[in-house]
Amino acid sequence: MKVRASIRSLARQPGSVVVRRRGHLYVINKKNPRLKARQG
């Protein structure tokens, strides 16, 4: 799966975690919960 640039930039933020669930790619951040993204 190609990863969009918006997902990649969010994934580089401190505290971010990239998670694959049921074929979707999510970025979640415990330190800054506003930083969320989803692809797929």
From TrEMBL:
<comment type="similarity">
    <text>Belongs to the bacterial ribosomal protein bL36 family.</text>
</comment>
<keyword id="KW-0689">Ribosomal protein</keyword>
<dbReference type="InterPro" id="IPR035977">
    <property type="entry name" value="Ribosomal_bL36_sp"/>
</dbReference>
<dbReference type="Pfam" id="PF00444">
    <property type="entry name" value="Ribosomal_L36"/>
</dbReference>
<protein>
    <recommendedName>
        <fullName>Large ribosomal subunit protein bL36</fullName>
    </recommendedName>
</protein>
<keyword id="KW-0687">Ribonucleoprotein</keyword>
<dbReference type="InterPro" id="IPR047621">
    <property type="entry name" value="Ribosomal_L36_bact"/>
</dbReference>
<dbReference type="GO" id="GO:0005840">
    <property type="term" value="C:ribosome"/>
</dbReference>
<dbReference type="InterPro" id="IPR000473">
    <property type="entry name" value="Ribosomal_bL36"/>
</dbReference>
